[in-house]
Write a structure and sequence with these properties.
The complex is a heterodimer of chains A (545) and B (254). By secondary structure, chain A is an alpha/beta fold. Chain A folds into four domains: 234 residues, no CATH class; 63 residues, no CATH class; 55 residues, no CATH class; 173 residues, Rossmann fold (3-Layer(aba) Sandwich), CATH 3.40.50.410. In chain A, α14 packs across α15 and α15 runs parallel beside α20. The longest helix of chain A is centred in the middle third of the chain and has 26 residues. Chain A is elongated, with a radius of gyration of 29 Å. Chain B has 254 residues and is an alpha/beta fold. Chain B contains six helices and seven strands, in the order ααααααβββββββ. Chain B has one domain. The longest helix of chain B is centred in the N-terminal third of the chain and has 27 residues. In chain B, α4 crosses α6 and α5 runs antiparallel to α6. Classes of the chains: A alpha/beta (545), B alpha/beta (254). The interface between A and B is medium-sized, with 29 and 21 residues.
């Protein structure tokens, strides 16, 4: 049957399917067009029936044709689409869930490829079981007719057991190598209980692991790749870049552990690079450098916190007026939100903010200055590439706050600066560059070189300073003297109470432009520091000095 | 009386009254809401959960009784007393090897079972194994992060327990004729006080192996770090008879 006929079948059944699945926001599925020269060239073409890219479901015509002797095309298409839609409406639902399931499986099987296989099988079992349970579907019939490998046979036998339907797998086929045992264990898993998916996938992985290893060995011996999933592969193509952003953000917040995040991100590095991560612009778009998992971790974790900045009068030639709309994103300031075009909602994708333009005229308007972030990366600080550094996280949150207000950020990352242990980044709005500079770790002694700082400050009429350190600085007196001279707003964050911090606090206590924040418990930094920074920036809670 | 409706009211009704009948906007979904056929999976999951709840409840009861002892010492009387309590709860439950396995993993999940105290947990696990209906049981515990102590305590004659993974101290103590197979390592005091039966350990065991052992055999596929004071019985290391023999600490050097 040609592609046009298949497309007409899809068009015929799509309204019914949409109704059945309670009207999911999924575009009309398409039939994959096979170029003439490729037709009949490869058998692999017939292996996979469904492709899912972002939210576009694509049916493989070759697969449907190959199945037509066993099952009418219409029913094959319906079963494939039921399966595909359920991935968007139930499991995995979003990229964060996908990552969580993968990470849980990886903890058990230890191997990247095996973990991907386990999570894919698990996601499929849940989606199909949900569909069989909740909808009238052709999925069981499709499974009855699919070509099966060893693992697919075990899973089909599992379906027989938990769905109570005959899928054509006789128990005698399962007798070998304790496969009945495996199925018995798999059948006990509460697949449809979303709150227990974490522990369920671990049990699923534990049970299936010997079989997967056996299959991996067999494939290795044959020198070939494994069989492809006829119901479609589960990779990052399922998700849009916004969903990937959101998923990484949620996963970073949920784990709060650099090593776990790094582990998972590195496993998906090829796919993430393909999706555009690893380039400038918020780990932006297009093929480029390998993904820096550490930088990505702080970037995504910092996106979970937002710090409002108190603006102050900047001299400008004109005044700003709303000019055009642009989409609002998480962490961006609320004050410019246009409630009329945002339908009264604060939600990425819906909410819009006004972009302002300078008009003609004269006067002083409020604005946000650029910021110089001074960060200590000496040996007494946590290495941000080994474990979660709250100093880097705090600095990252401050970076986001300034960048969201269209200001630029410069970085002075120091350890033993006079001996060359320093990294200077000039004022920029390139987020990834700033994060890379913040994540640099020297791990040596702690000394500032004021001669480095002066050029960064001079010539800037308005500039905020943000310093984050444990204050165990060899030339602390010089720093105190320097802060005594400048009029810029300074936010100083020191980690832990120590005599150096007390000395610094005492020395600058009369300076109204300097606010000092102490963090006694390192793990509280993201909460306490950010809260106190918020106090500082929020005029109603301004610290009285 | 219907006919007594004031005429002015009827005058505001449109000529076609059908348009004014309230329609359920979700009418279209009516057919789908009720159509959730029960699957055998629901039954399986439900009964599994019910059994697990009972096993967990028994363990919590045991902990309640044992919590009176501030420090849980592995002493003869303590173990006997705890085992008697465990027996009392376990006898009333109908379970399978998979339930025991699930219980072991649930022990590591603090959300489900708040306390994992290695002593009582091992005693309870042993009671579960000893009172299970199956004569041969395989517990796949190789992914368990905790090594459970006292596994195989008092394993009776006619029972075969296979553990895939490592076990902790006091493995197979007081064995009463059963066969305990550990597909991994065991720690110190393995087979202490055993009266009969067989313990097979695929890898290594620790110190004091077979302390006050009264009978039975211990086969170790790897190394035995040190033997205890054995009264009677046999200990083999890599098919070589260690006891009866002169070597007390065959591998004390590592």
């Amino acid at each position: 049957m040609d592609e046009q006929n298949l497309q007409s079948i899809i068009e015929e059944i799509w309204p019914k399917l949409k109704k059945k699945h309670l009207y999911p926001e999924i575009p009309m599925p398409r039939v994959r067009e096979i170029p003439e020269q490729e037709k009949g060239e490869s058998e692999e073409d017939e292996d996979v029936g469904l492709e899912m890219k972002q939210k576009q479901l694509t049916i493989n015509g070759a697969f449907v044709s190959q199945m037509k002797d066993k099952m009418p095309e219409k029913r094959v298409i319906e079963a494939l689409l039921d399966h595909g839609i359920t991935h968007y409406t139930f499991c995995p639902w979003d990229f964060h869930t996908h990552l969580r399931l993968y990470a849980a499986a990886k903890k058990v099987v230890g191997d990247k490829e095996l973990a991907k296989q386990v999570s894919n099988h698990f996601i499929d079992v849940i989606a199909d079981t949900h569909c069989v349970r909740k909808r009238f579907t052709e999925i069981p019939e499709l499974h009855r007719n699919l070509k099966k490998g060893a693992i697919e046979e075990v899973i089909a036998f599992l379906y027989q057991k938990i769905w109570g339907m005959d899928l054509g797998i006789p128990p005698s086929k399962m007798g070998m190598k304790g496969r009945i045992d495996i199925v018995r264990r798999l059948a006990r898993i509460p697949y449809l209980d979303r709150s227990r998916w974490g522990e369920s996938i671990q049990k699923f992985a534990r049970t299936l692991k010997p079989l997967l290893i056996e299959e991996q060995k067999e494939q290795g011996a044959q020198g070939g790749k494994g069989e492809r999933n006829p119901q479609g592969e589960h990779d990052l193509n399922h998700y849009s870049s916004e969903e990937i952003d959101q998923g990484l953000r949620d996963y970073a917040r949920q784990t709060m552990t650099l090593s776990e995040f790094k582990d998972v991100v590195e496993d998906f590095s090829d796919e993430l690079s393909g999706a555009g991560y690893g380039m400038e612009g918020g780990m932006g778009r297009g093929q480029g450098n390998p993904v820096d998992a550490d930088v990505l971790f702080y970037m995504k974790l910092a996106e979970n916190y937002s710090i409002p900045i108190k603006k102050f009068p900047l001299e400008e030639n004109g005044s700003l007026h709303p000019y055009s709309h642009c989409p609002w994103e998480i962490g961006a300031p609320f004050q410019d939100v246009d409630m009329w075009t945002s339908f009264g909602k604060i939600m990425p994708g819906i909410t819009q903010i006004w972009t302002k333009r300078e008009g003609k005229g004269r006067g002083k308007i409020e604005g946000t200055p650029d910021c110089l972030i001074v960060i200590d990366s000496s040996g007494s600080m946590i290495n941000p590439r080994k474990s979660l550094s709250y100093a880097v996280l705090g600095a990252a949150c401050a970076t986001n706050a300034y960048l969201h207000n269209n200001s630029k950020v410069g970085v002075y990352n120091f350890s033993d600066a006079p001996m060359g242990g320093k990294e200077i980044l000039n004022y920029t709005d390139r987020r990834e560059e700033i994060y890379r500079a913040l994540c640099k770790y020297f791990g040596g002694g702690t000394a500032l070189d004021l001669e480095d700082l002066m050029p960064l400050i001079q010539g800037k009429k308005k500039l905020d300073l943000f310093i984050i350190t444990d204050m165990k600085i060899t030339n602390l007196e010089a720093l105190i003297g320097f802060f005594g001279q400048i009029q810029n707003r300074v936010t100083a964050v020191h980690i832990g109470d120590n005599p150096y911090a007390a000395r610094f606090e005492k020395a600058v206590e009369r300076r109204k432009n300097i606010s000092i924040y102490t963090v006694n418990r390192t793990e509280d930094i993201p909460h306490i520091v950010l809260g106190r920074i918020r106090d500082y920036f929020n005029p109603t809670h301004t610290k009285k000095s | 009386m219907k006919s007594s409706t004031p005429p002015h009211k009827s005058s505001i009704l449109p000529p076609n009254k059908e348009n004014w009948i309230t329609k359920n906007p979700f009418e279209e979904f009516k057919t789908f809401t009720a159509s959730t056929p029960g699957l055998p999976m629901d039954q399986i999951v439900q009964s599994t959960e019910a059994v697990m709840d009972r096993i967990r409840w028994g363990y919590e009861k045991l902990l309640e009784e044992e919590a009176k002892e501030l420090v849980w010492m592995v002493q003869y009387n303590t173990i006997i007393k705890a085992y008697e309590v465990a027996e009392k709860y376990v006898k009333e439950i109908n379970y399978t090897a998979e339930d025991i396995e699930d219980f072991c993993f649930a022990l590591e999940n603090t959300q489900r079972i708040p306390y994992l105290i290695p002593g009582p947990a091992g005693i309870y696990l042993s009671a579960l194994c000893n009172y299970a209906n199956e004569e041969e049981m395989v517990l796949k515990l190789s992914e368990l992060k905790t090594e459970i102590n006292l596994v195989g305590f008092r394993l009776p004659k006619g029972k075969r327990l296979i553990i895939e993974g490592d076990t902790g101290d006091f493995t197979g103590i007081g064995l009463e004729g059963g066969e305990l197979v550990i597909d991994g390592n065991a720690k110190n005091w393995t087979g202490a006080g055993m009266r009969g039966g067989k313990i097979l350990i695929k890898k290594n065991i620790g110190l004091h192996a077979g302390e006050w052992m009264m009978g039975g055999e211990i086969y170790v596929g790897g190394r035995v770090r040190g033997l205890g004071n054995i009264v009677e019985g046999k200990v083999y290391e890599r098919e070589k008879l260690l006891y009866p023999g002169k070597v007390r600490y065959p591998n004390v050097y590592y």
